[in-house]
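Quick one: co-fold with alpha-D-glucopyranose.
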Amino acid sequence: MLKQPPWWQSAVVYQIYPWSFQDSNGDGIGDIPGIISRLDYLNDGTPSSLGIDAIWLSPIYPSPMVDFGYDVADYCDVDPRFGTLSDFDCLVKEAARRGIRIIMDLVLNHTSDRHPWFRSARASRTSPERDWYFWADGKGLWRRPSNWNARFGGSSWTWDPASHQYYLHSFLPSQPDLNWGNPALKAKMLEVVQFWIDRGVQGFRLDAINWIGKDIRWVNNPRRYGWRGYTRQQHLHDRDQPLAHQVMRDLRTAVSCYPDVVLIGEASADTPGGPASFYGTSSDELHMVFDFRLLKSPWRADCFRELMTDGDRAVPPDDWPTIVFSNHDQSRHIDRYGSGGDVDRRARAAAVLLFTLRGTPFLYYGEELGMRNGRLRYRDLRDPYTKRFWPFRVGRDPARTPMQWDGSPQAGFTTGLPWLPISQTFPTVNVEQSADDPSSLFHLYQRLIQLRRSTPALLHGTYIPCKCDHDDVVVFLRRDGQGNGSGRHILVAVNFSERPAVCSVSGIDNEGTLLLSTHDRHEQRMPWRTGQLDLRPDEAVVVQMQAEPVQLFSKR
Ligand code: GLC
Ligand code: CA
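Sure, here it is.
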């Protein structure tokens, strides 16, 4: 018997930013009952819903919300803005009825300064929780313990006048970093993991993992000349320490008796060894780690060709990649990839990549509708990071505007005043419109999800880059080693240019059946013209190959 791959390898994960998905009580803030009321949209078991398998919930914990939930004040409860623990239990149950699993966001590197642990830590130098955080004396009068700078601007050290020491924070001053070198803290956090597993959660998305662990000799980071902001120093001592890997191993051990629980890590793209180092040396750390290289890439064939292949190779052979183009920290990919070109056509081509590359796709709410970044005025902004760098960077608030459900005044998101303005595009870009229009991006996402689910080569097949003689076209194959006969080899081709492209693909001249095109094509056969692939502007196609292109596979 073949070993059944774990559920998360064939899953499509949908990220919900709880503030913005659906408000149920008119306070303008999304909440858990709101999410429950919209579960059928995500998956009602019929082909009319989107068809996702799991929800990653950005933090719903009690929080002062300075970093919108990534500043946790209690790991074992729900913020009253979002509901109660019993609402959460209901969400797990209602989601499970629809075959949807829940993945919690777990912030390990820091808490809120309002967390009782930090309150106690700061209350006295002899408090049992003092050592759960990092404290240090200044180097002489008014000089901080080290030159470390914080991710969201300013120094990583803040003076605590009550206890006369500095505390460390890698993000905002209200997010003090936790000391994972302290065994009591580690034990407490493992209890948190257990708490949510017992409530039916089937995975964790682990926040900012490469910040866990510090060089507690407080050595200065070397300067990087010519760089500004956070990257003006080489972050040698304030992150990327071996302890982070130890913590991941401990977490993996802790969940090992729950075969369905998945651990997914978020590490900076520039962490030494790359984020993939968090799979561990013998698959003993995380099940999946986000790779943000494609997310950060311009929409160019040469970049994608290289990054797709590198990304696939970076993942150890027994481990499993992630595919992600958007999240709550980045400008939406429709705007990034679309810049300078046809926004809608590129979003369609990107969707094909999202669901046909090897790995688990992660969608960010609203991307399936083609939701754009909101155009916000300074006074609309809520996120301290977005405000700090406005208007020089797009920031994060524009990607966090409320979900667009219909064309009614607040887009069906709330009956009150939304916490962030609804994006101006809502009258035409919304769920209701998308569902009615068979040519919408939503329908393409739906078709791709179904195609992926029913095609073993797309779910589990190996990824094989192909050589093609057109600079703007990227071609790859997915090959299913297990199956036999038809459906074993899937060819995907994407034209990154806004001109038609005719190209030949080395090793491939046999027939294929066109399974899907981002364009309105009626033919059944692969778009060949005298042995060449014939693509329209910005077109992406998925083709089922009839016979094994022998030359190609014998190379690997
Ligand atoms: C992660 C989160 C981000 C948050 C930061 C600090 O990068 O994705 O939203 O602000 O960590 O917790
Ligand atoms: Ca609400």
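If it helps, The chain has three domains: 7-112+183-298+308-331+338-362+435-451, 116-168, 459-545.
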